[in-house]
From TrEMBL:
GO biological process, one term: riboflavin biosynthetic process
Domain of life: Bacteria
Pfam families reported for this sequence: RibD_C
Protein name per its UniProtKB record: Bacterial bifunctional deaminase-reductase C-terminal domain-containing protein
Length: 169
């Protein structure tokens, strides 16, 4: 199963403001929604799940949602499953017949996927914003990774998308 990390970030590397707000452009949200709909699933952390609204769930195509959490989860959307690790989340989606899984953040989940060597490709949308403080793409880790650039494309008036392949060692 191909594991795709897809994130938007500010030009200085933050995926959200300190209060978890993600003030991205409409074109960014459209790209994100399109990719979730294409894959049909999304793996997210608990903080990201708690911010997901019914309207947001519908706009991303009502996908299979796997929430990586160590706490009890009361599903607020259909097709929601709790997993205790990123590995369990990927295994759950594989058992449902998916060939790809969409890792949609946040910072701690991205770190877990990185440390478990569970990222095959990264889509990174660079938004025309600078945040003085915020959440980094990956929470701090000792892992280093080499990437191979697949494509660069402009997705909005001032937004660029970088698409990389992870070079597994």
């Amino acid at each position: 199963m191909k594991k795709i990390l897809y994130m938007a970030q500010s030009a200085n590397g933050y995926i959200a403001l300190p209060d978890d707000e993600t003030p991205w452009t409409d074109s960014e949200w459209a790209e994100y929604e399109k990719k979730v709909q294409e894959v049909g699933n999304i793996i997210i952390g608990r903080r990201t799940y708690d911010r997901l609204t019914p309207e947001g769930f519908i706009s991303i195509g009502s996908p299979d949602v796997v929430v990586v959490t160590t706490k009890d989860l009361t599903p607020k959307f259909p097709k929601t499953h709790a997993a205790h690790s990123i590995e369990d989340a990927c295994a759950h989606l594989s058992s449902k017949g998916y060939n790809e899984c969409f890792i949609g953040g946040g910072s701690q989940l991205n770190k877990s996927a990185l440390e478990a060597d569970l990222i095959d490709e990264i889509f990174l949308d660079i938004e025309p914003k600078i945040f003085g403080k915020g959440l980094p793409l990956f929470a701090e880790s000792d892992i280093n990774l080499d990437l191979e650039l697949i494509t660069i494309r402009q997705t909005g008036q001032n937004t660029m998308q970088l698409h990389w392949r992870v070079l597994h060692k």
